[in-house]
Amino acid sequence: MALIVQKYGGTSVASPERIKDVAKRVLATKQAGQDVVVVVSAMAGETNRLVSLAEQISDSPDERERDVLLASGEQVAASLLALAIRDLGQTARSFLAHQVRIETDKAYGKARIKSIDSTRVLQSLKDGEIVVVAGFQGVDEEDNITTLGRGGSDTSAVAVAAVLNAGVCEIYTDVEGVFTTDPDVCPAARKLDRISYEEMIEMASTGAKVLQIRSVELAMKFSVPVHIRSSFSQAQGTWLVEEDQTMDSVLVSGVTYDKDEAKITILRVPDRPGLAAQIFSPIAEANIVVDMIIQNASEDGTTDLTFTVPKADYKKAIALVENMANAIQAKGVTVDPGIAKVSIVGVGMRTHAGVAAKMFQVLSRAGINIQMISTSEIKISVVIEEKSTERAVRVLHEAFIEKQGNL
Amino acid sequence: MALIVQKYGGTSVASPERIKDVAKRVLATKQAGQDVVVVVSAMAGETNRLVSLAEQISDSPDERERDVLLASGEQVAASLLALAIRDLGQTARSFLAHQVRIETDKAYGKARIKSIDSTRVLQSLKDGEIVVVAGFQGVDEEDNITTLGRGGSDTSAVAVAAVLNAGVCEIYTDVEGVFTTDPDVCPAARKLDRISYEEMIEMASTGAKVLQIRSVELAMKFSVPVHIRSSFSQAQGTWLVEEDQTMDSVLVSGVTYDKDEAKITILRVPDRPGLAAQIFSPIAEANIVVDMIIQNASEDGTTDLTFTVPKADYKKAIALVENMANAIQAKGVTVDPGIAKVSIVGVGMRTHAGVAAKMFQVLSRAGINIQMISTSEIKISVVIEEKSTERAVRVLHEAFIEKQGNL
Q1: Are A289 and A273 within 8 A, CB to CB?
Q2: What is the C-alpha to C-alpha distance for residues A119 and A322, in angstroms, rounded to an integer?
Q3: Which domains does chain A have, with CATH numbers?
Q4: I need a labelling partner for B13 at 20 to 30 A (CA). Which of A194, B7, B58, B298 fits?
Q5: Percentage of chain A with pLDDT > 70?
Q6: Can you give the pLDDT at residue B208?
Q7: Helices H / strands E in chain A, number of each
Q8: Which of B56, B68, B83 minimises the CB distance to A79?
Q9: Does A133 touch chain B if contact means CB atoms closer than 8 Å?
Q10: What predicted TM-score, i.e. pTM, was given to this entire model?
Q11: Which residue of B has its CA nearest to A17?
């Protein structure tokens, strides 16, 4: 029997009524002759409620205990969905991370899945049950509870689909699919029918919130077909697939933005080998992900080193960096949380020159100053001042997507 | 180092502020030189909120999934308390049932603890940590989540205290201790300084809500000294101890009542051997606890069989009983949810005759009709109409406790 994995996000299970709707959809899939494994997020608002409880108790909540707290949200949603399916007369069974051993590393709050034991899931499917797995959560090798970070349920779903060799992993969400850019910012945005794994990775890593980036990496690694679609309609959404020839003709598939980073500059770093490693090692050890890095050499043989970190880790990073700046005798540290990263993404860039130049021109004409630049084979990102974000997105969308081919 | 187990109920951890207060109290105990293991209930109102979610989804929620749902409440409270203790600078660690293997049988919603693996708790204590254990929850041998029933955290605490051979198990609650009767019903009620395990079992099983009865049975079995006290003051509460000579002089220690039962009568049951077993087996198999049973022989060789069950199981019981009544050719079934059980409890009854007679006399003078009677060595219970409950409690408290010794 074909196997399908369906993942429902927080808005899809926001209330008992919506959970019942999800149960009906799941049951319809089962009755159409497929085995179904469902992965659920916490009910919308629940994770925020739990975070707020933790913050009322501690300014810097211990990460292990925070994960124990947050994992309860998916536990509630999973059991309620199993209840709802059973109420329709179909046997169903919920599983938490420790029950199907979704084993992760020990990075609380952003753990990575190492393995899943499919034994109990397969037995449950064999018994004719619909399986409901709590998303977002894992356990480390000592059975401590971990969580996978924001959007982690997507990764849970793709990992489960990969382990079970599912025919498709459907990601149900509150939007119709992946859009060329954020429709709230740019009304001309339109839904994409297909997008390659690589483009999706770049879009997710540059601000598109529709999927957790690790879930796309996993999907690409194990060639899991992913269908991103709305839980409120039957419309086809966006398929995540292998790149093919026809995609090359499209120069830019999407314009993304990210306001969740902050910029830190270490002034006048002495130009000695090994200093970069010395600066970034403690940041990495604190599990802070550094995104863009640039160096500007000064005339006096020192270097200004600028990089961006998630706003959530901003204060922790500054404390580490200020210590470090002292130790290496740099001249000081400046910080700027008022920035945004705007990016264009497309596999067509591989075979077309001049895309970067056109991007800089478009922004320049709009009077938007570029502070940092970072490129990959299929993506160009720039850091600009935060308040110009929406305007930058609209002019880039107009130039590259609404009028594409006019390079 | 001496070890103390402290259990905090839902009202003691009802808000972030109260959780911080509990953390301070726990830390003070630790700083006084004792190892501390804390067992917590869900925040007040949380279990009801979860039950309501389940009921919005299903009229008869699957019991396995309901336990997965409800167990999340204690998970939240345990992690928040560990966070609060850590915020005071003391290392602390929460454990869920699957992490310390609080293994139970499979009776979802009212599971019994079979064993606890103390390895991780002992290691954590050795590391100088305060240990926080989620109450109310367990896992069966297949790692399915179970819950211990209303008040189950008391039982978790006493079981943990027994396994760890703790010096005392402190049960923190929102009242000052165990009272001679419900102060809301009878203003003359007073706090008891000490009470024997056996009396406490009878009081709990006849309606005193202060402790889950299984927790007292466990405490008696393993001779765990239990101290029931208020989390809002430093006052001494009530100690649960072995019975001793001085207790004999007190005829009645407490007056209790229970409005949570319903009465079912099967009319004209043919008088054949084995019929009682045939009637009660399916009820037992449905995990419904039958409390009082009486038979009234009729003149025609048949018997009217009357018994009480918890109101929560009332509808389930009626369905079973009606089936059964047909099968054994009884004449019908009558039901009465409008009853209450009122009891007097005291080890002094062992050595004094005439207590029952006086009880019936006191009720008769107050014009209260007795429908059923049940006695043990240290307890007399009567079933009366529900609306006379409070009056019955007051006249019995006056006769036996305010004026005791006047038999």
Answers
A1: no
A2: 50
A3: 3-174 (3.40.1160.10)
A4: B58
A5: 99
A6: 84
A7: 11, 20
A8: B68
A9: no
A10: 0.83
A11: B57
